[in-house]
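Support reply, case 0932

Customer input (verbatim):
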Amino acid sequence: MANLGILASGSGSNFQAIAESLENNKLHKISCLICDRKNAYAITRAKNLNIKVYYVSYFNRTKEDAENEINKILVNENCNLIALAGFMRIFSPYFVEKWENKIINIHPSLLPKHPGAHGIEDSYNSGDKELGVTIHYVDKGMDTGPIIYQESFQKGDLSLVEVENSIHALEHKIYPQILIKKLNSIL
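Our regenerated output:
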């Protein structure tokens, strides 16, 4: 059994999809959810699923101090792999090196196009005919790590809301599958 630590900042819909897939899989478990926003709905989702939750504040402290706390939690929870599920922070090079090739992120565009916090809107407004999702390792840059998997669909005449819904449905389908494959390789 491999242990997954998940970091989130927002509503936690990807977290929920991962948790439900791992519950059905039964080979691996989510050791904990770490959240940097105490009012994030991801915390409620984790509590409803009986998953241990940690709140790590970045307020009035250095990034390194917060990351040291995150690292201690991940080590104490015996995490083998980290999944970012809407975690809206960029890690320091030190943290990335410590967890090299063990931090996985999902991004709502076909990287290397449209990195950053507005991937859906940027790709929608770009004129790209093909939109999609990228799962990648986290490196020292913003959405620049080695790509693990991409899946796309044709934009056609979809509205921005329809594209957002399609992106989220795709994320909820493929992110858990890729994470389970990665966890299986740890066994």
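We compared this against your earlier run and they match. Two observations from our side: Residues 3-186 form a domain with the Rossmann fold fold (CATH 3.40.50.170). DSSP finds six helices and seven strands in the chain. Please reopen the case if you see a mismatch on your end.
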